[in-house]
Amino acid sequence: MTSGLFPQPASFKEKSRVYDLKSRLDWGEPALTIVDVRDRATFNQGHIMGAISIPAEDLVGRAEASLERDRDIYVYSDTDEETAAAATRLREAGFNRIAEVTGGLGAWRAAEYPVEAISTVA
């Protein structure tokens, strides 16, 4: 049997399109973490479903405390430049599998993929 007969999720890439990430999520691959590096208030207004909030200013310290260095980590922000800067910081801190989600939340929404928000109403 050839593997071409069976659909496969997108492979890990350091620059990933939202489609690549969604493909892995749809495949049911739990061995990845999605990190939103925008500030917490912006994260609460809307983020990629399943993402965790680690604002850029706390990124390396919180990542070192809570994320595995060899885990696939998908990072995004408001701009590709902010995403690249966050990814560089994680790579320099010794995280080996960092993927930059190009287009961030805007591209995710444009593709009509699920977004979640955190209600701030008490």
Automatic annotation (TrEMBL):
CDD domains membership: RHOD
Source species, domain of life: Bacteria
Matching InterPro entries: GlpE_sulfurtransferase, Rhodanese-like_dom, Rhodanese-like_dom_sf
Record Pfam families: Rhodanese
Stretches assigned to coiled coil: none
Organism name: Dactylococcopsis salina (strain PCC 8305)
An annotated Gene Ontology molecular function: transferase activity
UniProt-recorded name of the protein: Rhodanese-related sulfurtransferase
UniProt domain Rhodanese: residue ranges: 28-117
